[in-house]
What we know:
This protein is of the alpha/beta class and 336 residues long. Helix content is 26%, strand content 16%. It contains 9 helices and 11 strands. Helix 2 crosses helix 3.
Amino acid sequence: MRMVSRTPYVRSVPSSAPSTPGSATDVGPGYRDRLHWQRYQAFFPGALRLSVDNAPDEHWWRWRGLKVHVDRVDRPDAPAKVIALHGVGTYGRMLGPYGRLPALADLEYLAPDLPGFGLTGAPLLGAKYSDWVACVRDLVECERARDSRPVVLLGVSTGGRLAYDVAATTRVDGVIATCLADPSRDEVRRVLAARPEMARWSSLLSLVREPLSAARIPMHWLVNIAAVSNQSQYANLVWADELAGGCWISLRFARSCLASGPAVPPESFTETPLLLAHPDEDRWTPPLLSEGFFDRIAGPTRAAALRGAGHLPVEESGLADLDRAVRDFLDEFDLQ
């Protein structure tokens, strides 16, 4: 068994550093009061479903003037930690069922709501994609300061690109991604957009100056939320969720997401083991878009197709494939 050294929570930190998480009850209402997430559970197999009784503990983490909501399942004796990263149009609590997969159920689990989504607010002028990268990078460093256990990033949807960018800029021990599409490429923007012709408009966003870039518009005006799941009822729930696909996003955030290329070219991503587990019936970001990027990665990689699964996998066949692929990946790189 891997020996684990632990350090206590830091009670005071420099103002430039992230704080350690505190109790959600000290800050305000959490997901015990915002219950839309419970409606998603019916689409997952029974063993993976969350309820009020088995949901992760809620914590708040003060980061750069924001109060970042973090779901957490503490397992002090777990050999490793997994940090689940949502993408555009979702939030941390929506990923809870993936944390209950047998391959991950014995690991310590965290899932932040990234700036502008879920219960985490955004800066006055709106978040940028670089804020997401910095937020997760600082969270990783905060967890490393607590103890020496390996940290694995699980990126779902555009959270896969985020996990890659974080791993390229700070040390983590593994990346699991369901999508690696690079939205700075024209063919990716065409499938991400609410309508393909809108991809041509993305260059116009660069002409929007401050403070006009703080203007907010409904997310479904820009991105193809309807393709988030092959289960139409699930996609409708995401569309109607004001914390997810029904939220409003700033032009600043949309511009930064579309304009940001990978933190490093895949040919320079050489250190961190990476698993691409892409749904094979993804109607939003087809597997070829991820595979073209994945095939260029120079470091250690594995790939798996999630049979019968859509962009956010809820189908039993795809979840079984994901569980198997994650277990094999963690075993191969001694991360569990």
